[in-house]
């Protein structure tokens, strides 16, 4: 049985299984290498953040067709019964070379390369793309938000509007490794060890006879974790009511953490609320803001001078609203002893097993990437793809999310500012080696 937190082999497109059946029927058994990379046709991203590898490796280690899986496939009446018998014995026995999670990469660079008997390697295509695609898409969007926030804490509020519960958990994981401080998603907190955060919604305020009563009740229930949502009726009146309760809390030795704005003109309201809190003698109370924030709105809000201390970031990041999909592909680049490339217009691929080398400039910043043949070496550049699985088993221990998070932070610090621009496309220099170029020709 597939572990309950994993997808299992039926998370696939039917054509993966029909192709596998065709290979099996015609005794195509050669070792195949498939390369995974992302295109960037609309040029909305200058860089990507690799994410989702750990889940891919867990899926591959556990890859088995259960009796229920086989029974369902038999009910389709598409497949030779002997192929069904062969499928029952399938497990992943291949090798994986991949970018560590948190690595920055650029369009058309291999994120991961899988080598295995072609039936095995073909069956897992959809699973790999689905897993890496959502994780990388959100980690990239979230890293742009983190950069825009310039040190201000961000909290993932996306769960209620993500595309399903699995996406909601992945959004929490990806935003955390990209620098978010916490998530509102309690299940993700349990599953991944991510800090959770959240206080009240407008329903809580309206459930009481007055806003003051609601604030007082919440402060009594959570005296050390009180943030008042102040825009249910009148935001400035809400700020004054929050100040009143915060001062009451001080008499019992507690402090309110702050107030949250969830609507209206964030610049004007935050300035007025800051003034109200300061005049009440509460300069330590923070102003939190939510409502349709992403890297664009965060940048505009901060540049306008709004005194906002932290942001709740939800829908626009949870669905990567400005770029809602990652054009990620899985292409056959070698079969047996034959290197293979696709020549379709606009979708040409690089043949052969590959490596990426990253060269630093004189400042220690990322200078250029060189895509090479797998066996090449470059003395003055670092190879990025690492062996992470052999004979179907992980070869490296699981990396802590906190370490992946540090990896993202370190890598972003080495990326020149011009590639972090959220509105202007700036292509990072990526070239292919002479030997790889000769292979293509």
Q: Can you describe what's shown?
A:
The chain has 441 residues and is of the alpha/beta class. It folds into two domains: 29-62 and 93-138 and 327-440, Alpha-Beta Barrel (nicotinate phosphoribosyltransferase); 144-318, Alpha-Beta Barrel (TIM Barrel). 38% of the residues lie in helices and 18% in strands. It is built from 16 helices and 19 strands. It has helices at 14-25, 53-61, 67-75, 81-88, 118-123, 125-149, 165-177, 186-192, 202-206, 211-221, 235-251, 266-279, 295-303, 315-318, 401-413, 434-440, and strands at 31-38, 48-49, 95-98, 104-105, 110-117, 154-156, 182-183, 227-229, 258-261, 286-289, 310-313, 328-335, 338-339, 354-360, 366-373, 382-383, 386-390, 393-394, 430-432. The chain has a seven-stranded antiparallel sheet with strand order 13-12-1-5-3-17-18. It has a six-stranded parallel sheet with strand order 7-6-11-10-9-8. A four-stranded mixed sheet has the order 16-14-15-19. Helix 11 links the parallel strand 8 (227-229) and strand 9 (258-261).
């Amino acid at each position: 049985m597939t572990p309950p937190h994993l997808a299992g082999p039926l998370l696939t497109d039917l054509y993966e299984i029909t192709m596998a059946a065709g290979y099996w029927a015609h005794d195509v058994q050669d070792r195949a290498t498939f390369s995974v990379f992302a295109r960037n046709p609309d040029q909305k991203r200058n860089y990507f953040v690799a994410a989702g590898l750990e889940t891919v490796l867990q899926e591959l280690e556990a890859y088995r067709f259960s009796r229920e899986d086989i029974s369902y496939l038999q009910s389709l009446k598409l497949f030779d019964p002997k192929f069904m018998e062969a499928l029952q014995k399938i497990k992943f026995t291949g090798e994986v070379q991949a970018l560590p999670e948190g690595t920055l990469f650029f369009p058309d660079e291999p994120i991961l390369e899988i080598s295995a008997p072609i039936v095995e390697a073909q069956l897992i295509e959809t699973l790999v793309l689905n897993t890496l695609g959502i994780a990388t898409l959100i980690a990239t969007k979230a890293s742009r938000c983190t950069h825009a926030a310039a040190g201000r804490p961000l909290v993932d509020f996306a769960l209620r509007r993500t595309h399903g519960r699995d996406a909601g958990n992945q959004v929490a994981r990806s935003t955390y490794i990209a620098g978010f401080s916490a998530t509102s998603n309690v299940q993700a907190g349990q599953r991944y060890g991510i800090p959770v955060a959240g206080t009240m919604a407008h329903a809580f305020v309206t459930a009481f006879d007055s806003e003051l009563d609601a604030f007082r009740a919440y402060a009594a229930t959570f005296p050390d974790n009180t943030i008042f949502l102040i825009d249910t009726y009148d935001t400035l009146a809400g700020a004054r009511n929050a100040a009143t309760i915060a001062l009451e809390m001080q008499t019992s030795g507690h402090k309110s953490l702050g107030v949250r704005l969830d609507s209206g003109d964030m610049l004007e309201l935050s300035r007025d609320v800051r003034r109200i809190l300061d005049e009440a003698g509460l300069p330590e109370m923070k102003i939190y803001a939510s409502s349709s924030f992403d890297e664009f709105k965060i940048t505009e809000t901060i540049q306008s001078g709004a005194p906002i201390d932290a942001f709740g970031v939800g829908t626009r990041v949870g669905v990567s609203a400005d770029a809602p999909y990652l054009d990620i592909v899985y292409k056959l680049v070698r079969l047996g002893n034959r290197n293979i490339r696709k020549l379709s217009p606009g979708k040409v691929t690089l043949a052969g097993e590959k490596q990426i080398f990253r060269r630093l400039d004189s400042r220690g910043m990322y200078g250029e990437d060189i895509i090479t043949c797998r066996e090449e070496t470059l003395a003055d550049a670092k190879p990025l793809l690492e062996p992470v699985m052999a004979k179907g088993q992980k070869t490296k221990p699981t990396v802590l999310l906190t370490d992946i998070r540090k990896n993202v932070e370190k890598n972003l610090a080495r990326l020149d500012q011009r590639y972090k621009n959220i509105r202007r496309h700036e292509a990072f220099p990526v070239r292919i080696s002479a030997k790889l170029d000769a292979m293509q020709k």
